[in-house]
Amino acid sequence: MNGVGSLEIHNLGVAYLRLEALTGISVQVQPGRLTGIIGPNGAGKTTLLKAMLGLIGIREGLVLYHDQPLQKQLELVAYVPQRSQIDWTYPATVWDVVMMGRVRKTGWFRSFSPTSRRLVQEALGRVGMDGYKDRPIGQLSGGQQQRVFLARSLVQEADIFCFDEPFGGIDWKTEKIIFDILHELAAAGKIVLVVNHDLGESITNFEDLILLNRKLIAAGKRKNVLTDNHLYRAYRGKVVFL
Ligand SMILES: Nc1ncnc2c1ncn2[C@@H]1O[C@H](COP(=O)(O)OP(=O)(O)OP(=O)(O)O)[C@@H](O)[C@H]1O
Ligand SMILES: [Mg+2]
């Protein structure tokens, strides 16, 4: 069961006061395979990412990477929160936001080294945002903001990438730019976990899926997860699947 470099979640349970948000989640995430986390609103997708990263307390369970607690290796993780959880009025420019991705790696004092500057420059180019360096992040469109946060995650030189709904409210061109980069990360052997709302055609980008609704409904290869039975159990018949 221990594939080298896999991320293992064992019997994870999370409660908010009396609400059991997640119960008994056990799943293994493979490097090199673009993995989607899907399920209805309130299913616990965001909660799963936050619990893995120690941003909220867990009631029980273990999250291991290379057989060691992930929480002791957070420098290996790049996380882009759901849009609604980011303070877009924060007075920072595009360049500042991407440079913040270097801080955990290098510390504040060395975060502006020539290497960091080069990585920031490259990442902005890769997401097509190099023309916006001095722009305050509050003055960008939703798709531009998503690309800036994607760039920030790229400069972290992480092993594990977690994105919470990076495709919310963006056009197909931006979606393609982002998916191309996610595929590249997976092809480079990274662990790439993406919460995705859309069960439309874009779902075919994912090789593996984790389908949740407070409990784990199914996980593994996309085709084995997207069965009528699993979708019915997760969405209670409220889904129109392409
Ligand atoms: N800080 C919190 N305090 C109390 N309950 C919370 C908190 N955060 C989330 N919840 C509840 O936990 C459940 C799971 O929420 P979560 O945000 O993980 O769902 P989600 O699958 O990410 O949903 P969405 O698709 O809307 O983003 C929901 O019922 C939500 O109301
Ligand atoms: Mg969410």
The overall strand count is 10
Rounded mean pLDDT is 91
CATH T-level topology: Rossmann fold
Helix content: 25-40%
Order of helices and strands: EEEHEEEHHHEHEEEHH
Q: What count of helical segments does DSSP give?
A: 7
The CATH architecture classification is: 3-Layer(aba) Sandwich
> How large, in whole angstroms, is the Cα Rg?
18 Å
Overall 3D form: globular
Uncertain runs: none
Please state the structural category: alpha/beta
Main sheet summary: 6 strands, mixed
Strand percentage lies at 25-35%
General description of the model:
- This protein is of the alpha/beta class.
- The chain has one domain: Rossmann fold (3-Layer(aba) Sandwich), CATH 3.40.50.300.
- The chain has 7 helices and 10 strands.
- It has helices at residues 45-52, 94-110, 114-126, 142-154, 172-187, 222-225, 228-235, and strands at 7-16, 19-29, 34-38, 60-65, 68-69, 77-80, 160-164, 191-195, 208-213, 215-221.
- The protein has a 6-stranded mixed beta sheet, sandwiched between helices. A 4-stranded antiparallel beta sheet has the order 2-1-4-5, with helices on one face.
- Strand 7, helix 5 and strand 8 (191-195) form a beta-alpha-beta unit.
- Helix 2 (94-110) packs antiparallel against helix 3 (114-126), helix 2 (94-110) packs parallel to helix 4 and helix 3 crosses helix 4 (142-154).
- Residues 16, 19, 21, 39, 41-47, 82 line the site of adenosine-5'-triphosphate.
